[in-house]
Specification:
42% of the residues lie in helices and 12% in strands. It is of the alpha+beta class and 337 residues long. The strands form two sheets. A five-stranded antiparallel beta sheet has the order 1-2-3-5-4, covered by helices on one side.
């Protein structure tokens, strides 16, 4: 399985052509990597399974075919950014290689080498197997918080937190993937390109401040995590891509009311225990959303409540039997039984 959502499309909305085999022929990518098969395609690049002939291991290579300077800069930034972070819940660059973007001799191909991860995205799992239980969903979001904490401490903001960018590996580890539109102190491009007026991101998971002001920080990632939690529990999107193009964006000023209406409509479907948590994470004002440490504390409290309720359910029948036995003994001692 890929480290990129295979359902995604390129920036023009069209499927990017798979040109790598025509370009490479019998050559090794970068003189080192034997491309084996395509794993997935995203908004900026395609990901392939490749064999590193020097290290004798499988890796994932993210290859960009575009000669657009802004798009190429994004890939270079993503590689350099991932090289700064090492965390078990983040898909990173291949450690022996580093995060530097590489070029294929004699072509416009630019690529970075990532660790190869086998698994499925949470989006794929919900579509194939159904929603997660409340304890499972909370544990996944808590793990996501650990990953976000690791990047936020380095002033890196993912800006595209969604189930399709959260992969559950075959060993059961959650991995945050796809940092193509992330922001960090050295990011060279803005989320809204001045020359194209396009919105870069997943509209159904973008925070209001990202849509309206082209800016997002750690609180924007928390908003995406809240929408992801909603999807894991209910299996549908709170805001189903209500804005898809820049023209719609310009004309769709009541978007905040769309969020409010969707939230109000969904409250009856959200499990009571997690209702307040979701409301806090999805506050339209980023300043009113919980900080990451506060969010983790809220989830920990909910997990403890669920644990207590679980044990109460388990002990309900044994305690009932013990209570009835004591009642019978009491009645016998009183001569009433």
């Amino acid at each position: 399985m890929s480290t990129l959502n295979p359902a995604d499309q390129d920036a023009s909305g069209q499927e990017a052509p798979d040109l790598i085999y025509d370009i490479l022929g019998e050559e090794l990518l970068g003189g080192r990597y034997r491309v084996m098969k395509k794993l997935g395609q995203g908004g900026l690049a395609s990901v392939y399974l490749a064999f590193d002939t020097e290290l004798n291991k499988e890796v994932a290579v993210k290859v960009l075919f575009s000669d657009n300077l802004i798009v190429r800069t994004r890939l270079i930034d993503a590689g350099a950014m991932l090289a700064q972070v090492s965390h078990p819940n983040i898909v990173g660059v291949e450690p022996e290689v580093g995060g530097s973007a590489r070029f294929h001799s004699g072509s416009q191909l630019i690529f970075i080498v990532l660790e190869y991860v086998k698994g499925e995205t949470l989006d794929e799992l919900v579509k194939c197997k159904g929603t997660f239980s409340l304890p499972e969903a909370l544990e996944l979001i808590l793990t996501l918080c650990d990953a976000m904490d690791a990047i936020h401490k380095r002033n890196i903001f993912h800006r595209d937190i969604k189930p399709a960018n959260l992969m559950l590996t075959d060993s059961g580890t959650l991995k945050l993937i796809d940092f193509n539109i992330s922001r960090w102190p050295r990011t060279h491009v803005c989320i809204v390109e001045a020359d194209r007026k396009d919105i870069i991101g997943s509209m159904g998971y973008m925070s209001p401040e990202m849509i309206f002001h082209s800016y997002s920080n750690s609180q924007g990632d928390i908003f995406g995590a809240g929408l992801s939690l909603y999807y894991l529990l209910l299996g549908d999107h709170l805001v189903d891509n209500c804005v898809k193009t820049s023209k719609e964006w310009a004309a769709h000023q009541p978007l905040s009311r769309t969020f409010e209406t969707a939230l109000a409509f969904s409250k009856t479907r959200v499990p009571l225990l997690v209702k307040r948590l979701l409301e806090d994470m999805l506050m339209l004002d980023p300043g009113k959303r919980p900080l990451l440490i506060e969010l983790k504390q809220q989830i920990n409290r909910l997990q403890k409540i669920l644990w207590c309720l679980s044990w109460m359910r388990r002990l309900r029948y044994p305690l009932l039997v013990i209570g009835l036995a004591l009642l019978i003994l009491l009645l016998k001692s009183c001569g009433l039984f």
